[in-house]
Fold each of these.
Amino acid sequence: MDALPRQAHAYWMGLRQKRRATERPLVSVVDDDESVRESLPDLVKEFGFAVRAFSSPEEFLASDFVRQTKCLILDIAMPGMSGTDLQRELKIRGHGIPIIFITASTDKTVRPRLLEQGAVECLFKPFSDAALLEALNVALRVN
Amino acid sequence: MEVQPEHASGEIKHLQRCINDLVSLLALPAVWSGGDPPQILHTLLDALIRMLRLDLASVRLEVPVGEVPIEIVRIAGLRGAMPPAHEICEALNQCLKNDSRKWPPLLQSLMGDGDVSIVPLPLGLQGELGVVVVATQRADFPQQTEALLLSVAANQASIGLQEARLLSHQKQLANELDQRVVQRTAELAAANEGLKQELAERKRAEQELQRSEAFLAEAQHLSRIGSFSWRVSTDEITWSEQLYRIFQIDRDARVTFELIGTRIHPEDLSVFQEQIERSRQDRSDVQLEFRLQMPDGAVKYVHVAAHIRGDRSQLEYIGAVQDVTERRSWEEALSKARSELAHVARITSLGVLTASIAHEVNQPLSGIVTNASTCLRMLAADPPNLDGARETARRTIRDGNRASEVVTRLRALFRKKETTNESVDLNDATREVVVLSSSELQRNRVILQQELADDLAAVAGDRVQLQQVILNLLRNASDAMSAVDDRPRQLLIRTEADEDNHVRLTVKDVGVGFSPHSADRLFESFYTTKNDGMGIGLSVSRSIIESHHGRLWATPNDGPGVTFSFSVPCRPEGLTTDGVDASRLPSVSDAA
């Protein structure tokens, strides 16, 4: 009795793991803030997406996940390359990854500018899980 | 009578000569005509000596008292020097008195010592004109004919002298008249000259006046300044020409406040009327700026400066009105540029500050929200992911603490701001702030009334910080009245002694006020009713006042608006440095 469900659970988990790796679209999070890198991937995972977190644009570009990334959740202000720098770099390299910008800034004027330049959404921290989910759905439909 | 022919022929000759002499004597006045008395007397004496074969003839003419008598002596065939005439006359006079038949001793050396006949001949009816004395050594003198000749001569002489005297008198009168005419003429000429000069002077003065009037009018025209006077008791108003031009009012119109009111911008009319009433009562000098609205709708800005003069019954304001429209538009452009610059600077500094505050706070907030959302989702899963939920809940708490730390750091940052401790005269500080904000207040058409207490005690503290509070209260009051159009935007700033050795400053507006339940929130950070406000002004102001050991509070007015007051302790005698307590700035633990 005990073993079966546990086996079943393990099996199910294995399936989910497998599906996550193979079928679930990869969402990459790039933010220099550690608390975001800690919390956001868990939420995105809860939404049912595969997720990878990177502490800087440079790290992301150097990784093997650029091609697999179906959506990028990208902080704007970071030391070194900024979020918009990365957006430009990806365009140059021919990667049309949909981007959801997230920012702790209160300057509302950045949003229309970013949308104009092709971003799917720009969310101001703190944002709700619903807002993020909606943006992700839009991004993946575009994809 | 029997007449001897020889004797008769002699007699006839004698008579003929006598008649000739008479004719000569009668002709004398014609000779004398126009002559003066000495001339008359000379010819008279000469004629007598010649006609009567006299040895001596003299005359003494009476003259008015104080003048030298005219005395003339003629001696026939004079040889040698003659004694002075007046001595001879005197000597002859003596002889006549003594009835002497001899020459007086004075003349004996000259005339010899023979017998002599001396005959006096008075001139004028009573001898008042003088006397002629004739003398001859002939014993039969004067014969009948000679006596006749003498008498006729004396008469003729009298007449001649009278005429001469009359003539001389007439001459004198004529002379005097002439002199008076000359003198009068000279006086008239002088007066005329003076009059001419006066006229010329007046003309010049008139020209100068016209010139300076023209100068003044031109200067007023160029500088767009008109002048006026206002007699307070009668409301009699006088305007210069330029002022009619500025107000675009016909020159013939009688100037009244009613007429002036028709040209004042409707929004400024209450300010203007307020000022008139205040001027009536205060009798203090006036400085005022307001707008005019012309019949065609054009708006002019004018600056009025007036001072009062005269005594109580004849009080009069004399002043100038300058059309400052052009200057105003420059000023507005400048002020706009300045405020844009200030805005940019404020945005830059405040923006940087708020951005960093927001950034610092939003990061942990974001973590809290995300973790909490994840936590809820994990708990809602089937089966619930309790481990994951526990982990995300733990992170939520951690991020909450992080947010709190951020606020603590910000407070610490504010607290580091240095405060100085000096003696501050709150009246002076207020006046400076009023001057700084007067153009802004005027632009917002705020009527500012100051009631600054005399002999206000000094407070101890940071002058600049206290002025920031005053400025903030003034600005808030002005902003609160920006939508008020149905009543004058009156703002009262007052200083007074408060109980407990405190000094109180009050700012009272008639603005929109606040609802009772928001009173508690007024002083909270980031609480604002303004669209463009940060909501930190009153919070910072309260921090500043509390650091001065005082308190800041707000009360709604009975009528519209709010009264903000702060009360701070007076500077104690002999205070040194320990006035402001920076540690009393509100800390995070107070707020949390």
Amino acid sequence: MATAAGTFPQAHEESTIWTWLTTVDHKKIGAMYGVTGFAFFLLAGFEALLIRTQLAVPNGTVVDAERFNQLFSMHALTMIFLAIMPLGASFFNFFLPLMIGARDVAFPRLNALSYWVFLGGALLLTSSFVFGGAPDGGWFAYAPLSAEEFSPGTGLDFYVVGLLLLGTSSLIASLNFAVTVINMRAPGMSMMRLPVFIWMMLVVNFLLILSLPVITVALIQLLFDRNFTTNFFTPSEGGDPILWQHLFWVFAHPEVYVLILPSMGIVSEVLPVFAKKPLFGYSAMVFAGVAIAVLGFAVWSHHMFTTGLDTVPQIVFSASTMAIAVPTGIKIFNWMGTLYGGSIQFNTAMYFAVSFIALFTIGGLSGVMHASPPVDSQQQDSYFIVAHIHYVLFGGAIVGIFSGIYYWFPKLTGRFLDETMGKVHFWTMFIGMNLTFFPMHFLGLSGMPRRIYTYDADLGWETWNMVATIGAYVLAFSVLVFLVNFFTTMRKAPDAPDNPWDAPTLEWATTSPPPEHDFDVIPVVRDRDPLWYDRDNGIEKPEVPAGLHIHLPPPSYFPLLMGGGSLLLGVGVLSHLALTALGVVIIVYSVWGWALEPTD
Amino acid sequence: MRPSARAITLTIVSLAIVLVTSLLIWLGWDATASDPQTTLDPLSDNARAVNDVYTLITILAGVVMIGVLTLVLAFSFVFRERPGHEAQQIHGNPRLEVFWTLIPVIIVVAIAVPSFQVIVDTTGDAPDKSVEVVATGHQWWFEFEYPELGALTANELHLPVGRSINVELRSGDVIHSFWVPQLSGKVDMVPGHNNRLWFTPEQTGTFLGQCAEFCGTSHAHMRFRVVVESEADFDAWVDSQLADAAPAQGTLAEAGEGIATTICAACHTIRGTTAAGQIGPDLTHVASRTTLASGMFDNDTDNLRDWLADPPDVKPGSKMPNLNLTDEQLDQLVAYLQGLD
């Protein structure tokens, strides 16, 4: 075998662990994203349970103020960057090539790199609990509280470096995925025949490509303010803390759509399959998703209505925010139109998908309320907002992800999750979620601010806080049911046929789970719902040619190595700069080896 | 296609379920209006203007919620798979889609116009002859200064009823937020930015305020009271605040004054004595205030003593350190401070 001079020889598949460490297969990478994301989902859920336990009664003593501030900051950071985003990336990794009829993503090694950089960033951020204290300035880290003067520990440095690594990973993945969608579709798969899930993820990729550079700049400014005596955000030296808020929200508002659009895509796949009819208003669905994304870049200051914005900007940002209700409404009505006239099979995936419509509607409506700055002046930074974001991100994003897990599980593993346990999981999660988050509306109306580690008994907040805490434990129980379901199912023998749900999209045209090369023969797409078209027109699956040989990209060490190098880059900033130098050396070496690595 | 009797029945059942749920929600919603720090019982002109828009938007959102949830539920019941029924293969309906694009457009316009009107009405300059107040947020307490009247106090803002109040918002360190739900929506106190808000209290009483922007360790303990009183009571209060500190009465308090002017003076001002520190709250009339440590607890002997004994223990992160005072010193200091009314 040819070996480029000075580089490692190509990786061989020698053991299971080595296979996973050097894999460039999108399905394996998707599985790693999924397992990692779910593990962090459990961690963030545990943090939430501690928070709710502390707040169950007035003057709680479960955790102290400093720990509480770390917990709510890390709960948000973990859920957003280490759970929901990677779970979305997991589905996208696994299903993007399968749904567009390709054999892998455009840049398989880059795909592996984005996972390893993500893992490094995730571990680094979480390790802050052990090394001197986690970030405690909220996920938004507002200046000047985030300045060294007011946050002297290393928590905020872990925040900066962790997010820089995670952002790099997301940027790599987004470019890779966008190129894949645009260039690698099967014959006949025009853009307006793309599954809506792929469309929504494509939109997500562009949101990330456009917004991540902004937060990267802001994080580097914060890093310099904290460590190298610059004063970008220091008011006493002529800096401006409001600048941080603008830069942060120019990124973080689109980020909200990064979290919710994948789930909108998932339910847009699930609803038609189990209603047994095509998605209602496909084009409107696609354009509404794109419109939400475009408008999403013009609304960031609605997070800043109370910062003393002048009259005109308040009106402008209020108008643009309210405008988002229009494409969002179109989506909700089209999902309802998909149910209308159907023959709906109610299995667990469908329970989650239908409840997504209801819960997301509630979150959307409370969002329209504080799009009005006068209303926002009472709701901003109160528990009403906590209720709102959890209806969108739990009732929306997480519920959509669970719908996707039940729907695609046979394709992912060749096995069906147990339906009885699935229903128990759904009902306990649905009840727990409403019990936890609906009372938070009342707490906000009653004047309870967010992010307080304790409260007095005489404010009328005891009852609903207790109810919310009970709800949180019901939620935890529901996740436990899912875990039991997962592990018992994984011990069964695979028995899923290619297309158990009679679904219309291409991932169901291959075996469950798919072979390493995805498709024996690249499918030809003749309709927006290709498998239904083939079924209704009697088109058989193409014959597999004899002596089939498919060239797949070989495994590679270099993504792992470069991921390790970039982790050292970050660890060095937090400990000793010599490690950063070592990281640079490793990265340069990896690039060299990567470029010269033989490809077969 | 005429809907079947079955479909009509199931839709009515769905509507009933959603209406009952909505009624329960409304009961919970409405009950919060009687809580001490409620956002739903406005008692100033600007808070009332905000509340009017709030009510309109709440009603519209409620109607949409009831409509959407009823239809989702009804479709789930009506179109559940049954033998002999096939799904209708509909791809869309342009006329219907245009129609339901217009629904949110109309609703959005209906909430936008009154919202913008309130923004214009409430964010402009305060009326002439307003009472001027400079409110400064500190980690973790509020300072209130009346620049025209010369008074200075902390954590307890006194205001005359029926006169407009113009509040200039400043910060001594990080971003805080000034929020008295019954009198005014919140506006942030941002260092380097002098934000403003104004309102006219319409009723006497004591109203609760709390910092709404996360500001560090003891964010939860950054509360304040607003005392709205008659013009005469307010004038009397201002006069009492302008006076120098009351002289120490008795040997215990005199010893306490000695501690105050040596140890406490590093951070606190007590006008009429040599204590002129600029870091903590002005203590000249500390005994006239009803709470301690920024609204944490009532201003009584036990609480004051506990606070002085170990501030960071009762208020996490407190900038006031444990001064390691002896029991005797604590008694003396409490006696002195309680005379500063």
